[in-house]
Amino acid sequence: xxxxxxxxxxxxxxxxxxxxxxxxxxxxxxxxxxxxxxxxxxxxxxxxxxxxxxxxxxxxxxxxxxxxxxxxxxxxxxxxxxxxxxxxx
Length: 89
Hints:
Elements: H1 11-24, H2 28-60, H3 62-83
Helix pairs in contact: 1-2, 2-3
């Protein structure tokens, strides 16, 4: 079932969307859904490519693997420090 989502848009953008919708004989909502679907697909493609490149780099580079281990160790140290902080924020 579709979910309702509200956003605030500048008047100029709404006017542009309305002009596009009229020219395509569709609703403003249809135009927005099409635009968001295309944007989401593009971003998913970019994110997937980035993750693939990182995985490839880590698989081929001992230095990248070492860097990953250092970052993981630092993250654990930060988590431990936060857990043992006597003054919670």
